[in-house]
């Protein structure tokens, strides 16, 4: 298939949009925004979560709270799910290095043709299923476990990764929790925030992390807003982090090696600083770092950078 971005490709299986909401809700007003999920150990981007926004007639970008009530009232959540999935898979076709995660609405449990729709798009756009990750809120599992389990199994049969989003209550029976063939669990902001000041909450989160790791699942700290929350997530052993502290949502996805490249840039900067100090000491006699032992080590390294020290 060509990567030309033809109108036929862009419009392939695009869901019909109801006129019930009027022209203000034209398809082109919906925008995909992205927030990366970083792996704390590897430093890479695990995936980008897709966040839907709507640009209103006054050109103001609205969050879901600004348009979902109208979409829900018009019974169009299923169509919105398909709209987002279509755009995401098309983007994965254009940028195969990406991994994108989409939140499904509760109506996905009742959409008996959704998995077939996803399969057809994956085949048509020649996208590897593992590039697409799909998320279900924990509240959906608590309310409708059996249909949720069935949907998860169907999505896994496609080869997609499946995540449970906004884990907070932990009220699902352990037997049911272990039956879920999921790949990752995102832990709600409230638990991460509480674990910064309450040791008992931190112990609970740590137990959740250990249990999921034993089941082969990753854990993600959601909405990490500051350094304290990040330290708490690390103390609990959480695998990945997402939030404004690491990167705010933007209108283009972060690529897989974004954080690795940042680390490389920091290393290059550090080496440049050491080189500057070394040059000042060697050529100008200006010693900004007293201590001959330190400079002996630096001199030896530059004299034989690849040798054994």
Automatic annotation (TrEMBL):
Residue intervals of the EAL domain: 14-263
PROSITE patterns, sorted: EAL
Name this polypeptide is given: EAL domain-containing protein
Transmembrane segments: 257-280
Organism name: Neosynechococcus sphagnicola sy1
GO MF assignments: cyclic-guanylate-specific phosphodiesterase activity
Domain of life: Bacteria
UniProt keyword list: Membrane, Transmembrane, Transmembrane helix
Pfam family, one: EAL
